[in-house]
């Protein structure tokens, strides 16, 4: 009998549902603008995980650009 390869899963688990987070399109909004972003999200409750590097890096840059308009 051959063993099936394990399905890749996220190391992150939802704190509410105890389910592995899955990559999903999420609309991120700021100052009336929305942007679709692939982020980890709970398949049951919809809780979204925003990694620190994204929150403090790219998202801060986009916020500054929108505020300067």
Main traits of this protein?
single chain; 69 residues; alpha+beta; three-stranded antiparallel beta sheet; 25% helix; disordered N terminus
Sheet having the most strands: 3 strands, antiparallel
Give the CA-CA distance, first to last residue: 63 Å
Order of helices and strands: EEEH
Give the mean pLDDT: 78
Q: Radius of gyration in whole Å, from Cα?
A: 16 Å
Proportion of residues in helical segments: 10-25%
The structural class is alpha+beta
Count of separate DSSP helical elements:
1
Q: What is the element layout, followed by pairings?
A:
Blueprint lengths: L21 E9 L2 E9 L6 E2 L2 H17 L1
Antiparallel strand pairs: 1-2, 2-3
Short description:
This protein is α+β, with helices and mostly antiparallel strands and 69 residues long. 25% of the residues lie in helices and 29% in strands.
Please, could you describe this protein's structure?
- The protein has a domain of 47 residues.
- The protein is of the alpha+beta class.
- It has 1 helix and 3 strands, in the order βββα.
- The N terminus is likely disordered.
- A 3-stranded antiparallel β-sheet has the order 1-2-3, with no helix packed on it.
- 25% of the residues lie in helices and 29% in strands.
């Amino acid at each position: 009998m051959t063993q099936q390869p394990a399905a890749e899963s996220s190391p992150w688990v939802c704190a509410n549902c105890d389910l592995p987070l899955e990559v999903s399109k999420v609309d991120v909004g700021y100052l009336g603008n929305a942007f679709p972003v692939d982020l980890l999200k709970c398949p049951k409750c919809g809780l979204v995980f925003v990694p620190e590097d994204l929150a403090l890096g790219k998202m801060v840059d986009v916020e500054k650009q929108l505020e300067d308009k």
